[in-house]
Amino acid sequence: MRRMGPEIPKWFMILSVCWLYKGVTCNSVEQKIYVALNNTVPCVRLLNATHQIGCQSLKSGSTGVLHVLQSEADLDWVLSTGPHPPYMVFMEASFFNNVTMMRLKNSTRVAGVAVVIPNTGPAQGYSPHTGCPNQNTGVYSEKYGPLLANCNNTVWNPLGNGLSYEDFRFPIFSLKDDNETEVIRKCFEDHNVAANGSAPQYPLCAMQLFSHMSAVIDTPTCMRRNHLQNSFSINPDMVCDPLRDYNVIAYLRPVNTSTKGHKANESVVIAATRLDGRSFFWDIAPAAEGTVAGFVTLLAAAHALFPVAQEVPPPRNILFTFFQGETFDYIGSSRMVYDMQNKKFEIDLDNVHSVLELGQVGLWNRQKLWMHSDPISRLNSSVEEEVGNLVNNIKFVASQMNLSVEEPSVSQALPPSSFQRFLRVRPVPGIVIADHEAAFVNRYYESIYDNAEYLNVAYPSNMSEAEQLDTVTDTARSLAEAATLVARSLYKQAGGSDPLLSNITADPKIVTQLLYGFLIQPNNSWFRALFRPDHQQVLKGVQSNYVGVRMPENAVKESTLLFQYILANLTGKATNLTQSQCQNPSDLPEESKDLYSYMWVKGPVSANETEGSPYCVRASTRLHEAYSPAFLLSDYASKEYSTWTESRWKVIKARIFLVASQELEMLTLGVGVAVLLVSLLVTYFMSSKAEILFSSARETSTTTY
Ligand SMILES: *[C@@H]1O[C@H](CO)[C@@H](O)[C@H](O)[C@H]1NC(C)=O
Ligand SMILES: *[C@@H]1O[C@H](CO)[C@@H](O)[C@H](O)[C@H]1NC(C)=O
Ligand SMILES: *[C@@H]1O[C@H](CO)[C@@H](O)[C@H](O)[C@H]1NC(C)=O
Ligand SMILES: *[C@@H]1O[C@H](CO)[C@@H](O)[C@H](O)[C@H]1NC(C)=O
Ligand SMILES: *[C@@H]1O[C@H](CO)[C@@H](O)[C@H](O)[C@H]1NC(C)=O
Ligand SMILES: *[C@@H]1O[C@H](CO)[C@@H](O)[C@H](O)[C@H]1NC(C)=O
Ligand SMILES: *[C@@H]1O[C@H](CO)[C@@H](O)[C@H](O)[C@H]1NC(C)=O
Ligand SMILES: *[C@@H]1O[C@H](CO)[C@@H](O)[C@H](O)[C@H]1NC(C)=O
Ligand SMILES: *[C@@H]1O[C@H](CO)[C@@H](O)[C@H](O)[C@H]1NC(C)=O
Ligand SMILES: *[C@@H]1O[C@H](CO)[C@@H](O)[C@H](O)[C@H]1NC(C)=O
Ligand SMILES: *[C@@H]1O[C@H](CO)[C@@H](O)[C@H](O)[C@H]1NC(C)=O
Ligand SMILES: *[C@@H]1O[C@H](CO)[C@@H](O)[C@H](O)[C@H]1NC(C)=O
């Protein structure tokens, strides 16, 4: 009986609203038709020692009347003349620049922004990154080369407009140009465009974006809240997580990884590059020229070098390192240097002979590569001599190959590079190889447009996957030459003999397959064959090079795991160990987990079978934690180490619907509230008088028992 109470207001409300407004209005109030937008990516909030950057919506989603930006006049409409603020601005990517965005940011009439991202960037270039990447955490500062600090003599990324480092109080989502954006445009045209510039009539098309962020202010603040939650709550509601993942490394000659600190008689040449990138939007980081071209080149170099160097080992060891999280103030390299300093890594800095780093190389097109070095450490005569040797080794190899490799014509700072983190602690000799003499040639640095298309990795649309994997693109050919140069230079730098240099040649086929896998389709037959049989579904996900956060804390990002398997395939040996031996090789006399990693892989699958024949690969590859020392030391305001964290959130979604006028909605609400009050009164009356009202019914029920 009592259960009837709450039911009254609902049907009564619907009835009264329909009775008040009839027909159409009744429908639009009672059954708002939401159209979910399924292909959106938000911009999220990140925090460092002192700032928050990125975007967020209101807690219950930010809603605004949709307005499509097509001209300056539309901008005026949004910012001042339009009668229905706040507006949800829907724009083409050409408006997504710092001038327009800063005007929107400054206005209280903007509820949020949705940007349609095309596949190719604007011809004049576009970079939402800063002009001076990792400005405060490289080697240059007031104390070290003050004249070179803050990109004073070379602005590396002159196109950088800094949008990725702004703090927006409204949500910004990206959309692909597809059917969904057509639905949005149609909704706008049908409802929000009034003839001759007059105000459009309700109902209007509105958009709602949800991307509320839990963390605020900066990393010290959010880590403090995390600790409070952890200590006082059974279900801790964490607000932010440090950016973290793993570096991937491989030794030419395996070293015992269970002994840490200095190794007698080890002199190691480090061959480095980075693994990660970013863009304005969360988890979109194609970084084709920015990152992928570099690591593909180093992978191909390792593949070319290993067989020869294992046959005729050079006197020095070579450590291939792929640093993770470098985009965010050098997370991976700063951690490796920290571990080397604190005897938590298998070698220490005294073991490091020299560093050869690969920067951006994807656009060199067999023209010219540049050898960057640090003028400050070269003031030291022994470093100068070692850098000179390294330069001569590379030049020697280049002249053999008929390639042009030069040092920049004027003395300048090192470009942003992991090598700077080594120089921060001691003057290690080293070179950074890149395709730019001064400013980056990359016109889309850390942007969504730094993609396969920009690197010219493209195939005719009617090609099968097998044919695409087999097609050696021009980009692959030129990167293979760079890889040969790097591999031979490393062999020579490690003391290998000249006559064998010509035995080391990178395979353009491997380069083309790597580019295909990392830029176009990770779920291809080659990647499937060399990956774990139980993780194959991972390959279906879109590959992103954004470092991200880990849950649980020691989890490995799937794409990093895949990378380790690829490196193992390229540098390791197939063994005849069984699956259980592969898990526990220490039982076998000639195998050792101190020296090698053992990986069970799926193996190639021929056309007439489904399973392939899995086998065990032995390789000297390892994962090394890329977790900023700032968090190990609980120094969340660190000026020395990266402090970047990513906020948590509960809901990310986007949808459009029609809204009635505010007056109408207020009236509806008012009627609803009135009806609710009346019904509460009625309920109260009915329940207080229930004895009287329902006494007969009650009596009948008792008598039946
Ligand atoms: C921001 O808005 C204020 C007034 O609301 C104006 O004075 C100021 O110039 C604006 N700044 C920018 C960058 O548009
Ligand atoms: C920038 O470099 C120029 C010379 O290259 C120097 O004169 C100037 O003082 C430097 N500025 C700073 C802030 O160090
Ligand atoms: C926008 O970015 C350009 C570099 O692309 C810069 O020169 C300009 O000062 C920036 N404008 C604003 C308002 O930040
Ligand atoms: C944090 O990020 C902001 C925005 O990029 C930057 O201005 C500031 O210098 C950074 N703080 C530290 C300590 O690096
Ligand atoms: C997009 O539209 C095209 C034609 O307009 C249609 O063939 C296709 O199925 C649509 N795709 C989706 C996902 O609705
Ligand atoms: C998004 O997906 C939902 C459910 O699959 C569908 O109803 C909706 O129409 C989709 N949105 C668009 C804009 O296609
Ligand atoms: C818009 O204005 C033009 C002339 O200025 C007029 O001919 C036309 O009928 C108007 N359209 C509407 C829908 O009012
Ligand atoms: C690696 O070092 C540990 C500790 O010194 C030692 O027990 C182990 O036998 C070594 N492994 C190999 C393969 O030399
Ligand atoms: C190097 O190449 C030469 C000639 O191609 C060959 O005879 C020799 O065996 C190779 N050496 C190694 C270590 O691969
Ligand atoms: C790497 O993968 C290729 C193709 O599946 C295979 O032929 C080769 O044996 C693999 N190498 C190792 C060491 O697993
Ligand atoms: C694996 O190969 C080695 C030689 O490479 C051989 O001694 C060993 O018996 C083989 N083991 C099995 C299980 O086939
Ligand atoms: C699969 O095909 C290959 C040739 O393509 C053949 O040699 C092999 O016997 C076939 N295997 C099975 C199980 O049919």
UniProtKB/TrEMBL annotation:
Residue stretches spanning the membrane: 666-686
Annotated Nicastrin small lobe domain residues: 42-215
Membrane topology of the entry: Single-pass type I membrane protein
InterPro entries in the cross-refs: Ncstrn_small (IPR041084), Nicastrin (IPR008710)
Keywords, ordered alphabetically: Glycoprotein, Membrane, Notch signaling pathway, Signal, Transmembrane, Transmembrane helix
GO cellular component: plasma membrane
Gene3D superfamilies from the UniProt entry: Zn peptidases (3.40.630.10)
Subcellular location: Membrane
Signal sequence, renumbered to the chain: 1-26
Pfam entry (one): Ncstrn_small
Family in the record: Belongs to the nicastrin family.
Protein known as: Nicastrin
Organism classification: Eukaryota, Metazoa, Chordata, Craniata, Vertebrata
